[in-house]
Amino acid sequence: MKYKNADTVLPEVLLREIQKYIQGTTIYIPNTDGVRKKWGENSGSRELLIRRNREISAKFSAGQSIDQLADTFCLSHDSIKRIVYTKKR
């Protein structure tokens, strides 16, 4: 998390109002509802897992066994089953 100096980003009137309640310390201001990103969206991990799971499902549909997929993708049998038997949303 990157910190910013309040006097450089807030209007002076708002800064004075905040200083009535707290001053000289760090304060966290959360994002508004709906702005927060889901896990992996910044790094791209979410998209990589989605593509991997689609590839696993496609290979399963093409006839590869759960054992083969578990070995290929270094996942447990239960993880492969969850991926291939979960209905797509």
TrEMBL record:
Segments crossing the lipid bilayer: none
Protein name (database record): Mor transcription activator domain-containing protein
Higher taxonomy: Bacteria, Bacillati, Bacillota, Bacilli, Bacillales
